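anyone else get weird line breaks when pasting these?? whatever heres mine. first is seq + tokens for prot A
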Amino acid sequence: MKYVARTIRVFTGPHTDPTHRIQRDLALGVVAALLLAGTAILAASQQTGGGLPTRPQTSQKEGLRQGTPDGRLQSGWLYVLDPNNMAYESQVLVLDTVQERVVRTFKAGQGPDIVISSDGTRLYLASTLRNRKGQFKHSVLQVIDTGTGTVLKTVENPDYPISTVREYSSRMAISDDGRWVYVLRNRNTADEVFNYLATFDTTQGRFLPETASLAHCGVGSILALPDGRRLNVVCHGTNDVRFLDLTETGAPSVNTDADNRPANPPKLSLAQGLSGVTMHSRGIVLGFSSPNRSEFAVIMGDGRFFKVDRQSRTIILADAIDSKARKIVSTTAKTASSADDWLADGWIRYQDPVVSGDGMRVYLGISRLVHMSQGVDYFDRVVVLDSRTLERLDTIKLPRLSNSVTISSDGRRLYAISPDQATITTLDTVTREIRTIYGIGTSPIRAIVAP
């Protein structure tokens, strides 16, 4: 509900007739009653969270805005990350997709990133704080109680990477038990950019002193294993996968040299294998775990994939996605595509992995090569793959170009985010019914479904 101030004027002249005084007094009484009623309605609306506009005003205070009367967040709501076009102030919006309204807003600094605990009670929000002149202050990690909106703790988060582009992928992850939050960091020196992994202990509320070097990793994504003892980091700068073992304290277990600097973790080169599916991008675009968690796969921008055994840290399968149906003819030298290849006119851009709740399906955004000449890398369709075989199960056409997608826990609703139009499109994966929610912040880039 948007409240607009209106003025009710009551004209009183110099009349002294009692009738005029009575009429004036009655009019003033009506105005007072209306003002009191309006105040009561406003207070009730603030308690219930009803009618909050989907484009929240930036002048309101930091933290909790409005929600349900008892402060709870409901499973299935969306946490929408809105960097506000990389402005110095940003926000995380909590969206009720059924009522199509923003029920809460959490304020942040520049370049925010988030993860949520598996029970949905904690939001971990990283960002960089600047003053009004744009001067750097410091980067922080906030621990927020999602039920009350209270910032429980704010800790320094040095070397937090500041993106140079409006849309960027997540550089954080959280363990299944919620004990550890992992953050990829960049430390700029005179000679190089030093990439490393930091671990935040959610119980003690502090970052561990131990870190793990990720030399030349560049932009990366973290795959946390459910046992809480291992991590895989997919490095897009070096086109490889790093393996990290964690101690019981959550610290990365790596060897150190005489300078007490972490040595490079073991890595797996993916330079070998198939080539030439579309010959556009041969770099890693995403990685994800298999349903049994014993292996994981990485997908390349040209449609190749590699399956890796976590125990032996070796490639156990190299192929192209949906190769049989696409009639891909593979040799050790090259891979050729047929005229009926559904990927022949497209490519796979870098994106965060989207996997169904049971781990059986992977949702992959496909961009069109024709859009690349226009400087557009958004995608207009989502291919659903079997996570075990990487065969295509379905193709979902999107009504507008989107930057990212996410899936509901039951796999019934797909949410496509469009930063340019500040919209989220809800698509029923069974009936294909489409609904679009407008006015979602300024430039939303991705969303996480509340557990």
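and prot B, same format (seq, then tokens)
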Amino acid sequence: MGHGGALPRGGVGSHSGDVDPLRGQLPPRFDAGDPAVREDPYPAYAALREAAPLCRGGPGQWAVTRHADVAALLGDPRLGNRFPDDYHRFSVGDGPASDFLQRILLHQDRPHHARLRRVMSWAFGPRVVSALRPRIGELVDGLLAPACDRGLLEAVDDLAFPLPVMVVCELIGIPSGDRQDVRARAFDLGKAFAARVPEPDRVAADAAVVWMRDYIRALINDRPRRRDDLLSRMLDPGDGASRLTDEEVVDNVVFLFFAGFETTTSMIATGCAALLDHPDQLARLREDRSLVPSAVEEFLRWDAPIQSRLRLVLDPIEVHGRTIRPGRALLLLLGSANHDERVFPGAGHLDVGRSPNPHLAFGGGFHHCLGAALARAEGAVVFERLLTRFGRLEPGGQAARETESPFRTFSKVPIAVQAA
């Protein structure tokens, strides 16, 4: 997705100096912890994009606000994803969660990243995802059935959370009888991915990592090899691919369990909330089902589950006349880029038929989200089935934002439904 590729060596833009040449003052500051920003970041993003393409962030950090710059920087080889060990200790403490974060695909650079990704990408390729679609449909139908009798669907607890967990468990090869226990650890595992994890959440994240590691090790020891699932492929990749160590397998399966459902959960919840808030777009989608795939893309753009990506500067890089030194960090504001009017006319309006839609919700470059195709498939099946099963979809109560997650999502989206 997006316009991947490195920036020209001269950087983006042409302004120079320590102050904004148009305003004669320091660039504005972006504060991700501001309660107003956490509740609704988009007005702040709009002000930042208007003020400057590069804003001040936290200590040693600059934030990039506009689509063209963010898209290019996502694939720039002068930026890395592997941060020093001290960074992870600062973020999440010195326990198992810190060690886990240092080993997973998300925080590796080439060539190690390419080695891990080559082994793990099998499970998310077009062949596997296409073969999964009928099964995804069966799972969605089973989850929607109780709502037909109740007349109420709680979109998060009843659908958005359980569905992706079921799908990724089947991909990895987790037995159905164990899935409730595994699911119970998922929320705590997600806490490890916050930029600064509060002390109580560190304890919970450490405990989740320990439990998941022990579970995956036991699963490896107790299962026959040569099964057609992700875990078997990682243990024996074949095709001349280099084998992973047991520790690499365990931690990256734990990571993929989490990564395989969190973005999809958020996208389904956000999409449901967006349609309830925009009944005209819901009616449009019901009238023309061919718009379902583009609607999924619009939900991802409209309120991206992952609002930013942090990159470590490895080599000096110039962005709009400002040279960023190695060791500094660039915060690439995906949520802001996805609302840039230069690329998305009427960006503040939901448009289920938007085309083109070069959103950056899945990142870009060689760190483009591994599970993007699976998330799109699950989203398309979910919204197609919702429209097919229910002739009525209306607010069933007040939707509630999830405030304890590092991702932008909802904790509750109640929907009043009536069978078609």
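btw re prot B: The longest helix spans residues 246-277. The longest strand covers residues 390-395.
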